[in-house]
Amino acid sequence: MVTYFGVFISVVLLVSLILNSTCNGSPPIRVDGIQIIGNDKTHSEILLREIYFKQKQWLDSSDLIDIENRLTNLNLFHRVEVFPLVRMDSIYLVIAVTEKWYIFPLPYFHWVGPEPNDFEYGFRYLQMNFQGLNRTLIGNYYHGKRNGQMFLFHDPWIIHSPGIGFLFLLRNEHWYEKPPLEIQEEKHLQQTAYLGLSKRFGYNHLLKFGFSFQKWDLDTTKTVSKEKQDYLHSFRVEYERDHRDLIELPHTGDYFSQSFEWIRIHKVWKNRFVGTFDYRQYLPLHQKWTLSCQLLSSSVSGEDPTYLQLRLGHTHYLRGYRNLDRPGVFLVKGVFDLRYQTIQRRYYTFTNVPSSVAKHFRNLKFGLSTSLFYEMGQSWKKGKSLDSEKLLSGYGISLIFTLPYVNILRFDVGFNPRVGIDQPALFTELKTAL
Question: Domain range for residue 61?
Answer without folding.
Answer: 28-97
